[in-house]
Amino acid sequence: MTLTNQPPQVVTIAGSDSGGGAGIQADLKTFQARKVFGTNIIVALTAQNTLGVQESYPIDPAFVAAQFDSLAADFSIKAAKTGMLADKEHVECVVAQLKNVDFGPLVVDPVMIAKGGHPLLKEEAIDSIRSQLLPLTTIVTPNIPEAEVLVKRRIATEQEMITAAKMIQELGVPNVIVKGGHHAGRQARDYVLFANGKHLWLSGPRIATKNTHGTGDTFSACLTAELAKGVKMNEAIILAKRFIQGAISQGIQVGHGHGPTNHWAALSDEISVSNM
Predict the structure, then answer these.
(1) Helix H segments across the chain?
(2) Which of 107, 192, 224, 276 is most deeply buried (CB count within 10 A of its CB)?
(3) What number of other Cβ atoms are within 10 A of residue 32's Cβ?
(4) Cα 88-90-93 angle, rounded to 5 deg
(5) CB atoms inside a 10 Å sphere around CB 172
(6) What is the reported pTM?
(7) d(CA 214, CA 194)
(8) DSSP letters along 70-132, please?
(9) Alpha carbon of residue 164 to chain centroid
(10) Alpha-carbon span 55 to 47, nearest angstrom
(11) DSSP 8-state class, residue 256
């Protein structure tokens, strides 16, 4: 008798981080930890470490398209995510390719700025994300600075997080998470707005550490993995929050700057969920 072992297959469409803490590398480590098979489409290369991004090199869009074709011809992709997309040309290339394949639910992490302050998305690409990518998206996961760019207004309060989520939803994406890690306070609180209008807050204790490189990538990659397994949206979001909370709180020391999170950490039990 032939035994089969076919894990859910997922893809990350993003940039490569030579330092291993963010981008494609963080996504693949997260996929492995969550027991899905990770594939990747590389949009850009970076010379990067925990101290920052020294150089970046976008990949020829024709080669990005070739990677889409290669994966679609062989793998059964059940969920996809995007990360660093570099510029307008690459955003539009990815959008065009996504329209030609069925890669399942799409998670968009609208990566714009690296931890060290290096811009990872050119200004002219933002409108393309708003008008072309978000309408194809199942769920988008901006942090507060990214959400501010998407809605073109400052977000200083939790009520403004709620307003921003509604504004982003109006751009055509059904489910929105506005992550509150950049706000002050003892708890890091994320606001989740679902397609049906329901909402919730996710809270976890704020961790005093500089080792948060790749948190957005890791959170969205875990969410992608869970959706590929068929986990319901609300449960997948909570699992992703538990995963990133554990990855930060059970930290590791790598490099001399903003170090990476711990991708083999246990899920955290310190997450609370509320509708307030």
Answers:
(1) 23-33, 61-72, 88-98, 125-128, 144-151, 158-169, 215-228, 233-249
(2) 224
(3) 14
(4) 110
(5) 15
(6) 0.95
(7) 25
(8) HHHTT--EEEEEE---BSHHHHHHHHHHHTTS---SEEE----B-TTS-B-B-TTHHHHIIII
(9) 18
(10) 5
(11) S
Sheet holding 77-82, edge to edge: 52-58, 37-49, 9-17, 77-82, 106-108, 139-140, 175-178, 187-193, 199-205, 272-274
Helix (H, G, I), strand (E, B), or coil: what is residue 43?
Answer: strand
- The total of other beta-carbon atoms located within 10 Å of residue 35's CB is 10
- Per residue in 154-177, pLDDT (tens digit) is 999 999 999 999 999 999 999 999
Q: What is the C-alpha separation between 181 and 72, in angstroms, rounded? A: 35
Q: How far apart are CA 49 and CA 47, in angstroms?
A: 7
For the record, the structure tokens of 108 come out as 């968009």
- pLDDT tens-digit series, residues 202-242: 999 999 899 999 999 999 999 999 999 999 999 999 999 99
175: which 2 tokens? 């489910």
What is the token pair recorded at 43?
């949009």
